[in-house]
Amino acid sequence: MPADASAFVSDAATELLAGVVKRPSRLADGRELIYFDDAETTLPAERRIDARELDARPGTATMRRDVLTGEWITVAANRQNRAMLPPAELDPLAPQSETNPSEVPDQYDVAVFENRSPSLGPALARAAGDAPAAEDAPRDLDDLIAPGIGRTRTAVGRCEVVCFSPERTGSFGTQTVRRARTVIEAWADRTMHLGALPGVQQVFPFENRGEQIGVTLQHPHGQIYAYPYITPRTRALLTQIDLEGADLFARIVDLEDAGPRVVLSAEHWLAYVPFAARWPVEVHLVPRRHAADFAELTSAERDELARVYLRLLRGVDALYETPTPYIAAWHQAPVSVGRESVRMHLQLTSPRRGADKLKFLAGSEAAMGAWTAEIPPEVGAERLRAALAAVGEVTT
């Protein structure tokens, strides 16, 4: 570590809900770094500066429109060189040390920073060291759906890394209730601020867990993508809401709450295996009251979510003797459309169809999007309820 790394910075702090404290900072190349301190943290307010010598940030990537589907594909060559399963002593998400020049300069509870190898980048330079301003950003939603062959735009937006813990191994499910509550507060804060960035249309927090999913770092972490368009999955959802009615999520909750696929029922949250589950392990978690995104959740809803979500993840892990690979995808309403009808919800999916078997997407599913489910949703729900019963209530 450079000799002057003993210098400290103490930016203006903001107290959020549940006693969580937000402390903004910057990395050596100008990327934003934010510490979210647990309630009653033992860490000092001051944080060591990032004294590394880093290359200039890459320019914002380009995206191309697939005229056959109308979908936008980001071409981000800088991601070819991102870290791939480094040894524990060179964990880039652990706090910096004399021998590990990682991305986080000091000790932390939860840390959020701009990805060094992003798919999406800034529309405008915000500070010294920022990526250059985007030259051809999307104009608006109409511009994004306009027809034409060979259309390109600059891939404006943001990709952030969310470190759940300074520990080198684990996942969201291995955290304490207090730490889970801190991460939820970070998700709410970032959802609000990323949604206000120029050109951002949708904010997506998620966690990839397990090498079978394609994880490249073992450190307990997730990511947040702030897209310059409404994603294909959400556009399909908006189409279904137009067809089924603006109260679609309320009716889904009523249907599942009274049916055989519920796995967890709480005051503010409901978890269930969906009626038409695709994956061998698939469970949805939804607030009983309408909320478009994390920022709209009440303090009570966030408090309960910390316990409910931890129990759900630990139940998924209890299905087998070894940890279950999964994608935990938090779907949220777009920034400017569908706010009154798209309810935020988790869709957790795993390709694990047995102790030593994975479901691979082949011709029909990968090429045509025509799925076949091998495990009936009611059977999947029964298995998950048994695993959750073995786990018991989460208290710490």
UniProtKB/TrEMBL annotation:
Recorded GO CC terms: cytoplasm
Q: Which SUPFAM superfamilies match?
A: HIT-like
- Keywords recorded for this protein, A-Z: Carbohydrate metabolism, Galactose metabolism, Metal-binding, Nucleotidyltransferase, Transferase, Zinc
From the UniProt record, which GO molecular function terms apply?
Answer: UDP-glucose:hexose-1-phosphate uridylyltransferase activity; zinc ion binding
Key word Cell wall biogenesis/degradation present in the record? no
Q: Active site at which residues?
A: H221 (tele-ump-histidine intermediate)
Q: In terms of domain of life, where is this protein from?
A: Bacteria
What reaction does this catalyse?
Answer: alpha-D-galactose 1-phosphate + UDP-alpha-D-glucose = alpha-D-glucose 1-phosphate + UDP-alpha-D-galactose
Q: Which residues form a coiled coil?
A: none
List the pathway annotation: Carbohydrate metabolism; galactose metabolism
Enumerate the cofactors the protein uses: Zn(2+)
Metal-binding as a keyword of this entry, yes or no, is yes
The record's annotation in InterPro entries points to: GalP_UDPtransf1, GalP_UDPtransf1_His-AS, GalP_Utransf_C, GalP_Utransf_N, HIT-like_sf
Pfam short name (any one): GalP_UDP_tr_C
Q: Where is the Galactose-1-phosphate uridyl transferase C-terminal domain?
A: 259-389
* PROSITE patterns referenced in this protein's UniProt entry, alphabetically: GAL_P_UDP_TRANSF_I
Similarity comment: family membership: Belongs to the galactose-1-phosphate uridylyltransferase type 1 family.
Name of protein: Galactose-1-phosphate uridylyltransferase
Species annotation = Microbacterium faecale
What taxonomic ancestry is recorded? Bacteria, Bacillati, Actinomycetota, Actinomycetes, Micrococcales
Q: Which gene carries the instructions for this protein?
A: galT
